[in-house]
Fold:
Amino acid sequence: MAPSDGDNLLQSVGAIFDHVAHAVPSIRDLLPLYRDILGGEVAGGGFNDWGGHLGVHFTFPGGGRVELLEPIQPDSSSVGRFLERNPRGGLHHLTFKVSDLRAALEVVTGGYETFGTRVDEPSWQETYLHPRSTGGVLIQLVQSYPGLPPAFDRPLEEILDEADSRRGQAGLAVIASA
Structure:
C-alpha cells in the first residue's frame, strides 16, 4: 500500500501517539527527576509478568506521557536485555495506540519488520516494529481497552517495594535508592 501525497497510512486505524518508554535499572531512583523536577504525576501502570517488568506511567502538563520500565525477573525479555546492552538505561520504545491492530499489521507488514505480536488477549493486543526497519527506534503498536494501564490501587512506594521483593526472590540485585 503506497501512500499518496500527505496520506497517513495508520490514520485509517486511528493511530495516535500515546507515550515514550524509558527503561531504567531503578524507577525509585528516577522519581526525583520525573516527579519532583519535571512535574510528572503518577498515572498508573503495573507489573507485566509476561515481560518481566514493572511499568509506571507519568502524565505531564500539556498532555505528554512517559512510562518508566524496570525489570523484576531474570528473564525480563525486553527490558532486561535492553539494560544488559545499556546499563544506565535509555529510550526503550515509542507507543502508538490503534483502534484495530490487525488492520495496522496489514498496513505495516509490507515495509517494516514486526515481532512480538500478541493478539490473544482482547484487552491488550500489541506488536512491535523492529528498530532495524524504523531508523533505530523500537515502535509499539497497541490496541487496548480504555483505562489501560490502570491507576494504582495503592501508594507508589508499596508498588516499588513489591518490585524490590520480586527482584530479590528472583535472585536479581535489589536496587538501593541513591
Summary: The chain has one domain: 10-169. Confidence is low (pLDDT under 50) at residues 1-6. The domain at 10-169 is CATH 3.10.180.10 (2,3-Dihydroxybiphenyl 1,2-Dioxygenase; domain 1).
